[in-house]
Amino acid sequence: MKRFGMGRIAALAGVAAAALLAGPVAAQDAKELRMLWWGSQPRADRTFEVIDMYQEANPDVSIQGETVGWSDYWTRLATQVAGRNAPDVIQQDYRYLFEYGSRGALADMMPYRDEILALPGVSEEDLQSGMADGKLWGVNLGVNSVAMMVNATAFEEAGVRLPENGDTWAEVKELAIEVAEKSDQIDYGIEDSSGYEPAFQNWLRQRGKDLYTAEGQLAFDESDVVAWYEFWADMRDSGAAPPPDVQALDQRSIETNQVSLGNTAIGFANSNQLVGFSQINEDEIVMRVFPLVEGSTNEGHYFKPSQLLSVAASTEFPEDSMAFVNFFITDTEAGKVLDVERGVPISDQVREAIRPELDEDGLAQLEFIEGLDPYAGTLPPPPPQGAGEIDQMMISVGQQVAFGQLTPEEGAERLVSSAESILSR
Amino acid sequence: MSSQSDPPAYSAAAAAPLVMRNGPRARLTRMLGPSGAAYVFLFPWLAGFLILTAGPALYSLYLSFTDYDLITPPRWAGMDNYVRIATNDPTFQDAVRVTLTFVLLSVPLKLAVALGVAMLLNRGLRGLTIYRAIFYLPSLLGTSVAIAVLWRQLFAADGLINNLLLGVGIQGPSWISSPDTALYTLVILAVWQFGSPMIIFLAGLRQIPADIYEAARMDGASKSRQFWRITLPMLTPVVFFNAIVQTIDAFKAFTPAFIISGGTGGPINSTLFYTLYLYQEAFGFFRMGYASALAWILLIMIALFTAFSFLTARYWVHYDD
């Protein structure tokens, strides 16, 4: 490889020179955009089909799609942005949106709202999730929420009634113990979500708290964490939840969820993942809202952007990128192709256009979101810088408590002090 | 690299008076002198090294003194990163502990297995090339996703290992997801890939003259005495070479832990290799400056380890010729 050092440099110089000379000319006849997203093969097929539709309608624009899995996605994006080679249109996650936005990597979409990015059928409320300080960093691609995935077949075979929306944690615990005892096919009732941040957040919100304040500080304290860890210790001791070495097989993917592994009858995931759960599991999977905390506000859920579409600040073609985002989110034909695979579309028109064409799981997802209002509160403030690291800390400390290396009190102390030190960094 | 640079310099000096009096090499030598000509021929490699290796390495040294989030320009931070690593980073200590455990366990075990298999294969077997290929196979497979999946299956709660144990009445844990055992499954994975040191040992064994063994047998030396008195001492240069190479490799191990733990280094940081921690800091948490400092500390650790090996080598490595 080293031998080609000079050749490579010469080639680079040549390309650079050619780009300098040809830049403005090339820009006029073919506008080349790049779009980057994460996800599965079915998602890639749908996305490429929509890209083709757009290119057909806009022959002067060509869009090159790139897709990778979630775990490689953020490495890829970070290196491309650092190398000043950011894709023009970027699929974003609510957690990372503001990390990129506040560092100046994303274009403010607000100035395009009047015309190019009119987003017909989209309410201002749905845009809130992409906004901070009056700037629009990304547009919601679909609505989802955390959800309980329930193996209905396992419950049926065991002769235990299914958990229902509105059940309390105490009730779900009893059902979980019962199904674990009576079922032949599963050993435990419910996944141990003591290290699963969205479950902790849902529970905190029902107690009138949250993960983070609008100022980017912790919105919970040690006593909350102690109660949470003690609650899950009781779930494990009672046989409702699996022991820690079984739970640790979970790698935050549909494939490694305890339900998919056949270990528990109840797991926790996101509502748009129902499609994936149904594909992987032969058993029937149904969705329920998270259990309620007795005497609480009940409003643990919120309507969460499953993903957002952003435009890079560095793009050569902001107008065309914005126009493509507008098409992707509000065109009814594109919507029919995209289905509810990325969550329930935010545009009223698109939602109504696809409703008659949805299959059973798609409809279940749509109805889950539409029936979520009694259990949903306001959108929490955007997570601060370092939230990703704290999420990882939650997994690790949760495991330390579950494996008995720390008491709930010690775990709570460690989690809060590490989180505070990460936030102050 | 030396194979590319040495021959031209050598032939320019030696052959010029005979046949190359007016050729381009001879002209170059006349113009620049013999060492100048050498540099001309070295230039392609040198340029590649400076631009693609030394340049980025020096840049990372600079970055290690900055605060750099990959998106906004780096800001000078002086010794902050190093001070934090030394005084205020428990995860760093976890990562060092995990990595040292891995190095100290996997390298000796791997070398022992490699030497053992090499000795078995060095008994004039028929079909040696086939056996050699079979034993080398795991190293070729490397740490691919398929191997990681296989490992998860083998060492899961209801995996093959536990089924075997169940046969003798032992109920094993889920090895791969228990913090007490997860690292050892990675050590076994590393040991299993003993192919390249085995090949080198095999070559080394063949260098030992047969008449030494013959003389030892005549004097009535037992097999084990032959091993400790002849084989091992004669092999020490090869052991030394293998130990250095494998140690450096083990320090830099990344893929097995990354794939088997899903990139987290879990459960509870029990498989958080140093390089995995470095990767998380750089690309997961946007701290490229801090990660660069971690990288330089790893370099220093490896350098110290290697220097220590070379210093002690004179006491146990025998070069007969």
From TrEMBL, chain A:
Gene field: yesO
Record localization: Periplasm
Keywords: Signal
InterPro entries: Bact_solute-bd_prot1, SBP
Pfam families documented for this protein: SBP_bac_8 (PF13416)
Any single GO CC term annotated in Swiss-Prot or TrEMBL for this entry: periplasmic space
Name this protein carries in UniProt: Putative ABC transporter substrate-binding protein YesO
Family: Belongs to the bacterial solute-binding protein 1 family.
Stretch forming the signal peptide: 1-27
Chief localisation class: periplasm
From TrEMBL, chain B:
SUPFAM superfamilies reported for this sequence: MalF N-terminal region-like (SSF160964), MetI-like (SSF161098)
Subcellular location per the Swiss-Prot or TrEMBL entry: Cell membrane
Membrane topology term: Multi-pass membrane protein
TM stretches of this protein: 37-59, 98-121, 133-151, 182-205, 226-245, 257-279, 291-317
Record has Plastid as a keyword: no
Occurrences of domain ABC transmembrane type-1 (ranges): 96-309
Annotated keywords: Cell membrane, Membrane, Transmembrane, Transmembrane helix, Transport
Principal subcellular localisation of the protein: membrane
Family annotation (Pfam families): BPD_transp_1 (PF00528)
One GO term (biological process): transmembrane transport
Keyword Transmembrane: yes
GO cellular component: plasma membrane
Chain coiled-coil ranges: none
Similarity field: Belongs to the binding-protein-dependent transport system permease family.
Descriptive protein name: Lactose transport system permease protein LacF
